[in-house]
Amino acid sequence: TSPSQPSCPEGLLCGGVHLVTWNVGGAMPPDDITALLGLHIGDGNTDMYIIGLQEVNSMINKRLKDVLFTDQWSDACMERLSPFGYILVTSQRMQGVLLLVFAKYYHLPFLRGVQTETTRTGLGGYWGNKGGVSARMSVFGHTICFLNCHLPAHMENSEQRMEDFESILQQQQFEGQAATGVLDHDVVFWFGDLNFRIDELEIPAVKAAIDNNKLTMLWEKDQLNMAKDSESVLEGFLEGPLKFPPTYKFDVGTDTYDTSGKKRKPAWTDRILWRLRATVPSGPTPNAGKRGSILGPSSGTKVTQHFYHSHMEYMVSDHKPVSSIFTLQFPYKVDMPLVMIMVEDEWNSIADATCTFKAAPNFARSSWDWIGLYKVGFKHHKDYVGYVWAKQEEADYHRVEHEVRLPKGSGDFILCYYSNNTSTLVGVTEPFQVLTVMLSSFYGK
C-alpha cells in the first residue's frame, strides 16, 4: 500500500522525495521499473526522484556512445517518469557511478544553484570505479545535497570505507557563499553501495537469521551501525531500521544468496542515510565525550522517513535495489520564480503564439537565454519542440512573438525560460492548449 503522509502544517512547505540506490552490476535496465519507482501506488506526494546507480556499464566503446547520447539507465528512468510530469534536473556520471535528479516540472524555477561534483577514490584516486558523485541545490531557499557513493568492497576494508567517505566529503567543494561543503547543507542524503558487511557471524548463522527473520541480530553486527559510535564523520547521520533482508549477494536471475565458489556472506551493502545540519552546541551532554555536539533541525527543516525497503523482484544484478520515501518540511523562503512567463490558455493560430515575461530585479540575464516550447511530458531542458531567444529589452515586460513548428495534431504545451548563466529552467508556465497545427518555421520577431 502507499505510505501515508501527513498533511503539511500551515506556514510550512512540504515535499516528497523518493530515493533509490542500486548496484546494477553492469546489467541492462529491466523491462519495467514501475514498482521500483512506486508509480503503481502513486499518491501524488512525490515531488522529486533521486536515483543513484553503481556499476552502470562503463566499457570503453559503450562509454563513448554515452557521451554522444545518454546511457540506457538514464533513458529508462526518463521514459518512465516523464509521462508523470518529472523532468531531469541534473545528472552526473563517473564511470559506473550515476546520479539522476528528477523533479515535477512546476518546481523547476525553485531549484537553484544546481551543481554537481565527482570524487575518484579507486586506485588511489586515479580511477572512478569507486568514489562519490553528488548534486547540490537550493530547494525553495533551503540547501540540499545528494551524495551517491560506491565504497571499497570486502569484509576487511571497513576502515578504508570510512577513510574514503571522509576523503569524498573533504574533496567535494561547491562554488558560492552558502554550503560550500557537503555537510554545510541544511539536509544531506548519503546513499549508494556503501559496501559495509556483517562482522563476526559466519555464513550459516547469517542465513539462519535471515530465514527466521531475526534481522535485529544481524543489524547489531553491521559494520556501518557499529561505526556510528566511534566515527566522528558519521555524527548526525540517521538511518531507518533495516527491516528488509540483506541486499547482497544474490545469484543473478534469482533471489537466492550466492552459491558460487566465492560464497559471499549476505550483507546490507546498499543503504540510504540522511543528516540535518548541526545546530550550535548549547552545552555539555551525557554523550559529549563520544559525539562532541548537539545535532538537530537546522533552519526549521524536518525530515520524516515513511518507508525503507528492498525490491526482491528485481533480479538483473547480484544486488537488490533499495528505496525510501521522505517528506521534507521547511519554512517558506522562496516562493517567486526568477522569471514569470504569461501566455494565453489556448493557441488557435500563429497570431496567438506569443508570450510576455518579466524577470526578477536580482536575476542576471544573458543574451544566450531562451524560451522553449515543450510538449507536456518532456524529459529534460533540451527536449523542446522549438525555442526563441529571450532578447533583452528595457521594458518591464518583454514580449516574445514567435511562430512555431509543431508536430501534427493538437496538444498540451508549456513554455519554459532557460537561463544560460545557471544552466537551468528558471520560469515555467501552466500547461496550455495548441488547438491547430502550425507549420511555419520557428523564429523570433
TrEMBL record:
Gene source species: Oncorhynchus kisutch
EC number: 3.1.3.36, 3.1.3.56
Repeat found in the keyword field: yes
Keywords: Cytoplasm, Hydrolase, Methylation, Phosphoprotein, Repeat, SH3-binding
GO aspect biological process, one term: phosphatidylinositol dephosphorylation
Inositol polyphosphate-related phosphatase domain residues: 17-335
Function noted in UniProt: Inositol 5-phosphatase, which converts inositol 1,4,5-trisphosphate to inositol 1,4-bisphosphate. Also converts phosphatidylinositol 4,5-bisphosphate to phosphatidylinositol 4-phosphate and inositol 1,3,4,5-tetrakisphosphate to inositol 1,3,4-trisphosphate in vitro. May be involved in modulation of the function of inositol and phosphatidylinositol polyphosphate-binding proteins that are present at membranes ruffles.
Enzyme class: hydrolase
Localization per Swiss-Prot or TrEMBL: Cytoplasm
Pfam families: Exo_endo_phos2 (PF22669), SKICH (PF17751)
GO terms for MF: inositol-polyphosphate 5-phosphatase activity; phosphatidylinositol-3,4,5-trisphosphate 5-phosphatase activity; phosphatidylinositol-4,5-bisphosphate 5-phosphatase activity; SH3 domain binding
Cellular component GO terms held in the UniProt record: cytoplasm; plasma membrane; ruffle
Family per similarity comment: Belongs to the inositol 1,4,5-trisphosphate 5-phosphatase type II family.
Catalytically driven reaction(s): 1D-myo-inositol 1,3,4,5-tetrakisphosphate + H2O = 1D-myo-inositol 1,3,4-trisphosphate + phosphate; a 1,2-diacyl-sn-glycero-3-phospho-(1D-myo-inositol-4,5-bisphosphate) + H2O = a 1,2-diacyl-sn-glycero-3-phospho-(1D-myo-inositol 4-phosphate) + phosphate; 1D-myo-inositol 1,4,5-trisphosphate + H2O = 1D-myo-inositol 1,4-bisphosphate + phosphate
Coiled-coil residue windows: none
Family annotation (SUPFAM superfamilies): DNase I-like (SSF56219)
Designated name of the protein: Phosphatidylinositol 4,5-bisphosphate 5-phosphatase A
